[in-house]
Amino acid sequence: MRKPLLMLSLLGVLALPAQAQQPALFTGITRLACEALLCLSSGSHPAACAPALSYYFGLRKLFRTDVSTLTKRLNFLNLCPSANTDANMQSLTLAIAQGAGYCDAASLNRNTYETTIRVCPSRSGPMWWRYDDSDCTQETVQAIDPAMPRHCTAYYQHGYVAPGDLKPPRYVGKPGYDGRWVPVSNP
Asked: Measuring CA to CA, how many Å separate 89 from each of 9, 71, 109, 140, 153?
């Protein structure tokens, strides 16, 4: 009686390492969180990223008593076990939560400030030499901020992101007048 039990227990112990050698695959929300981390830290988003990115960008503050959108997205990304492996991974996770979806050209063009510009009449025509500075007026306008926010810089220049993989938008034009952010296209 003891011999079959001993054989069964040995068989069970020997079979254990064979099961432990197979890599564990994440499922459910954990898998989506890890996929979102991978997809948002690279410049390309293949079709396999669609479910994870849809879930990530679907996290929003819905009610007044809800936590912020940023907190919801950060908590989601932290569900991936590798998000907290070291300080660099934690900073990448925070940079993604603060930057992804907020640092593209369209989002940066919503960051405006109020400034005063000097507007002078056109100095063309037959009597252009008669115009002087007294003809100029001051106007208050909304201008697009030419400075990239710190969280966007942290997102685009993080050490765990391959250089050139994420392409930050570029500011073109004259600040206060016609300046704006434009996306940088891939060659």
From this structure: 41, 17, 29, 44, 16
